[in-house]
Design a protein that fits this description.
Chain A is an alpha/beta fold. The first copy, chain A, has helices at about 15-25, 45, 65-70, 105-115, 135-140, 150, 160-165, 175-190, 220-225, 235-250, 290-300, 350-360; strands spanning about 5-10, 30-35, 75, 90, 95-100, 120-125, 155, 170, 200-205, 230, 265-270, 275-280, 305-310, 325-330, 335-345.
Chain lengths: ~375, ~375, ~375, ~375
């Protein structure tokens, strides 16, 4: 396998360290550059000490990527230090793919800067997920500075959109909640089973979803032994789920005329590091059975190596530290509701693992390359 | 305040120790007897060492209550040992109230045994909550051996049924999930705002709800850093919520003709000791506003000292170790759904504290007597 | 009981909310004033929402205490707002006792400001615990601005110094680690059993010991499922333990000539909210037995209501949310070492509860007044 | 790399699932057989559902290994079922190495049964670690049924005994606590720096050390938010640490005449799944410095890929899910003590990872083969 050169832009956060954890052992890539504007010049393992002796590479500024672009012969010396003047440097001008592990609003700036560059981009942020700038601006309360990017962007859920991803110059890596919710609900909407009434999505996430910056939100004593809801009726992932479900319903096996009723999405904060469990409630047009639904799901995901249809409700530890999404689906005869539950690791299948899966699809590799992590339990 | 004599039957479980924790400092009661069949003769503090030096009372057999009933002059000596032959014993024949902290199926046996006794009973189990034996048998898969008891029983949620509780010889203490769910939803159904469609109740509970017996369910490594759903579409608290909501809808301010649509109830297991957070989704017949709903709730609970209507979604630590129920209600204009969230401590407001509140109502005392615990945070 | 007026200066931290939790239900006090400089004018329950409907008192500036001192007729209106001009205000000039729940370095400033005032002070900080300014300055790397205060200060561990505390105008509330370590080791040094060699104190604390301010230290994902040591050989509580042990050895039943060898103290950070467990290792001059040691400890603490000598190693949950200190002592014949373990709740016996116990002693009340909290388990 | 055939005997426990997690991705081995007497015939993923779709191999009885030994042509069919009569079966008679993931007392029975077999054994239990049956019987209160085994056994800590391990037919995998304690202390005793006085080892372990069977010890509510010591002065790992330290002191660079004073070992139970942090206190014969000690440690472990000498006290999450042992060493000038801290994952470096490392050494492979797991954080 000829190695591709990849860069990670933004390495101080949880998704940054997680993607380095995966890429460092991926057989197809060379981790050519890791950047951080706030910690430039320090070692990656200074920021994340558990990498001591494993990834001690020096953090560079993302500006090196710009310079590389402009023809400067930027190289990285063997000890990880960049040297713009020297001539024994490894060139990074031909980096093949860049992962942007940046917050929304910042990412679009980089995507704009990198326009016309030969490398492809996987963007972790929400900046290019929503199809059009007006929807973005309505939900993110922010002017979109690079609407042209939407034309290049594929929504990076390979279980649904692998063909587009394979060709796209820019892949918008899905939000962590949408990944779990969409994998849970897509078979129902794609098959035309559900057309109306309510779509209730009650999700519960680990704390790493709130990011690495210390705040009252992620303080131990505010989270430990505790539980609460947040972002009721306003969370930005609501519209992302809505838009993709509508796309799925329109373009599924049995396209629906009625569309998808407004999605009710409520996130909650679990006292755990990693994991999202989503419990979704929808009502099919006709009564069905649990086994019919399970068949539908097994069929729908039969070639998808990371989706496991389960006989019992999954727990988040069943998928922890892995790229799996475990799904349980049931039908309640008494109420007429379908209940679907999905479990993912928000940092892997909900972020860094999914990004690597997208990279695999972009490069035409087997989707599972470098992603064979067995869940960690206990 | 003249002290009432009370007994706790079944003291080895979490609700047993919790009610002793509360009763030991209640100004109106004398804790006359604590029983355990499996640990008879040991001290209460042998079973629960954190009571060392606080409650060292010797555990008796519940048979002592029977003997007392039959006229035997049962007394308890000052060192807590019972002595059926001696004559220096404290009599327990005139116990005023018995708390049955027993599992369902066992409780009804005791209620039957105690029929005709002068003391009143607060029963923690599900045996007398459902009104009729056929409903019980359908959901508990068990023959009801004492259907006569239903006639004596009041459903022990004082925020709704304080008049009946005041007079009832037998109070069926609600289930932990129904307590949180009913306090969250009752104002909507009692006011006739909601008549149809879906009632989705997504609840999350701490581990103590699973009881004190060691099992795979409550092992640390299966719970810690983990989260999952269980009892999907089959949990027995479903029917309890359904029945009371129907009663509330029928007898509320604006009785509804349509009844209550089937309740969808899904419990989940949180990696915490105590607490239940319930997120409920219903759709009002007409659009409303968040502030109208908050007014409704504040009005409905204006004389209820343990219900706090909150401006932000509550967390379970906001009520931990207290008898409070915190409630947040909101209306989502985009979806047309009402979202209600309630938080309780499952061992206090969901069990032992509620039982003491019921006792206070039964004896005509102020509801808050002995229940002024401030939540413990952090 | 005639009520004493007390004030809490510094109410936004964990010790601030914890002492209000205790004082709000203390039968002997009126909580006349709660101050915060950063949140002046807000309600206490805005800062600590779990107090909603319980303590909604408005936070004042500590400057009100100064003004009261200077003769201004400061009053607090019934809605908690201070009004320096009005005349219907409740006077606070005659406050009897002030709790300073402030960081070290800040406290001494207040103690100096309050010099000559009629109220007494319990200071939570380390500013007046070490007897002399030079020791303070060596370990706290800070100039002491009020050395005169040491003359007024008693070390506030009532199990050892209740007579001095009873009379002292200023009580220096012990550090959380010293409280657990000193209660564990004092009987050995006071009885002259130990004179030499090593004193190893290995302590493990809950996160609330690190304070309420969000930082990398107390972020959930850095603490949860984790454990580490910190402050090795430099923690300031080392010298506090050393000084008091030396005082105990000098003034015990059998004064020792040899003194106390240098104390090795290592704190560790537990993934729990509350609690300190201390494991101490010392070597007696002569071999002894476990039962002789237990007798010694039971005798030493026989009139101390908050110290419980246990037959098995205690856990921190055995004392959680209470003012108890549980102690286990053992002798290892193979090694010749005494192993002593103590457990306390760092926010109660290690801070706020101990402060209230000191207040009780200062006012000549029973030590347990308002402190009869039963440990919360689970 | 020609693949070796290995078997895991005893697959229902935590070490069983952990070694399968590692072996399933080890490039040098074929996982020929997994056994369980209690779950024979079920799939490995039935017992450990997180392996669904990854390791679905059917569990066999260990008796298959006996039969294989006796010449029977035992084979395993492609669906994992064994068939002693058929002839399309894969043979397991030539298995190269067997991991015994069994409790002490059970292991020695298997080692005896397998005497004379061609395969080599790595035994997880304490049955062959202590050199002689008398020491074993004194500390394990159990008759040793196979004293002959001690002659074959090497103590499986490759950082100290790789040459013996390479040749040994039987490797006694160290206890989890001894692994952390010995790696922390060996450089001091091997270099002759320490000869006398006290050796205090205060260790803290995650719950998985207590095994997979549900009990009061590992119930969530007894462990979560809690902490306690156990096994004071009696834990069996005490003698294991003692014996190896003595061996190290005798055979180190500067053999000591004085031997090693009795080791004081106290384990504590942390509310975490995985990890052991050990804090050890010893006194050198002569004062030294922190930097001299760090140099000594770096030198001692310079060729040991899994030992990382750290500049700051390590946390257990720094090594979680990996085979690393992080060590911090310091000297306290005030007390004259050396303080050493080590962190390992008890299931990896303290059990399954160490066992695989031993296998690598036995087969002459690079020690790190199949063990390049990056720690999982957060």
């Amino acid at each position: 396998m000829e190695k591709k050169k990849v860069a990670v832009v933004g390495a101080t956060g949880y998704t940054g360290s997680e993607i380095v954890r995966i890429l460092a052992q991926h057989p197809g890539v060379e981790l050519a550059m890791i950047t951080s504007e706030s910690r430039t010049g320090e070692k990656f393992s200074d920021v994340h000490p558990f990498f001591q002796g494993i990834v001690d590479k020096v953090l560079q500024s993302a500006a090196e990527l710009d310079r590389a672009a402009s023809g400067a012969n930027v190289r990285v010396t063997s000890d990880g230090k960049s040297d713009t003047a020297g001539n024994s440097r490894e060139t990074i001008e031909d980096v093949d793919l860049v992962f942007l592990a940046l917050p929304h609003g910042v990412s679009m700036d980089y995507v704009k800067r990198f326009a016309g560059r030969s490398f492809r981009i996987v963007d972790f942020s929400g900046d290019f997920r929503l199809g059009t700038p007006d929807v973005y601006e309505a939900w993110y309360s922010k002017k979109h500075i690079y609407p042209e990017g939407f034309g290049d962007a594929a929504y990076g859920l390979p279980e649904l959109y692998s063909e587009r991803i394979h060709l796209a110059p820019l892949v918008a890596n899905p939000g962590c909640f949408p990944t779990g919710a969409l994998l849970a609900l897509t078979p129902l909407f794609a098959s035309g089973l559900i057309t109306g009434e309510h779509v209730i999505i009650d999700s519960k996430t680990g704390v790493t979803g709130a990011g690495v910056k210390a705040s009252a939100t992620n303080m131990f004593s505010n989270v430990h032994d505790n539980f609460k809801a947040y972002g009721i009726k306003t969370h930005r992932h609501t519209i992302e789920i809505q838009k993709i479900l509508e796309d799925v319903a329109r373009n599924g096996e049995k396209p629906s005329q009625k569309g998808v009723s407004p999605v009710q999405f409520t996130p909650h904060l679990l006292p755990v590091d990693r994991g999202i469990l989503t419990t979704a409630y929808v009502r099919p047009d006709e009564p069905t059975t649990a086994s019919a639904l399970q068949d539908l799901y097994r069929r729908f995901y039969r070639d998808k190596p990371f989706v496991r249809i389960c006989d019992a409700p999954p727990s988040i530890k069943d998928v922890r530290a892995s790229n799996y999404c475990n799904i349980y689906v049931d039908f309640d005869e008494r109420t007429g509701n379908v209940v679907v539950i999905s479990a993912i690791d928000n940092l892997v299948k909900g972020a860094a693992g999914l990004a690597v899966q997208n990279m695999n699809v972009m490069f035409g590799w087997d989707e599972t390359t470098g992603l064979a992590h067995i869940p960690l339990q206990p």
